[in-house]
Amino acid sequence: MHEAVTTARTVSILRAPVTLTLKESLGTAGYHQPVTLTARLGATYANRDVSIYAQPYGTTTRRLIKSGRVSASGNLSVRYAPATDTTFSAVFAGDARYAPKTVTTHVGVRAAVSQADRGWYSSASYGGEPYRAFHQGGSLNATATATVTVTPNKKGGVRCLPT
Length: 163
Prior knowledge:
- The chain is an all-beta fold and 163 residues long.
- The chain folds into 2 domains: 20-110, SOR catalytic domain (Immunoglobulin-like); 112-151, no CATH class.
- Helix content is 0%, strand content 47%.
- It contains no helices and 12 strands.
């Protein structure tokens, strides 16, 4: 007479690597300038879904901006307007034959700077560059002012020193 025996064994099945890329239309964008991100997924067995995430600089969480099935050519695209330097990720969860994969790309964001001048009495253009004419002294003396706006407003965050 024999006693019943139960046993368990873990078997690791290697899955093939998948081809996944993520390309951005601009490596550096203006503040809130839309960027097109395109994930391209190579051959898979069953799963054709990809998710694209955004993680703004200084944060620890990424936000899903698009998820879905890739097109017949293997592409999934989304437009996104970052407000700060952002790392983007494309994620393929894997399937029975192909391993999961995540790829990333980075888009830098420039600040937007604008200037408004007041107190000028005439304007001209020389070589395609605009110029403003101001009076100095006398009865036509006006206070010349320039208002500069930097977006996003990081008041107190960065200081510019005179050169």
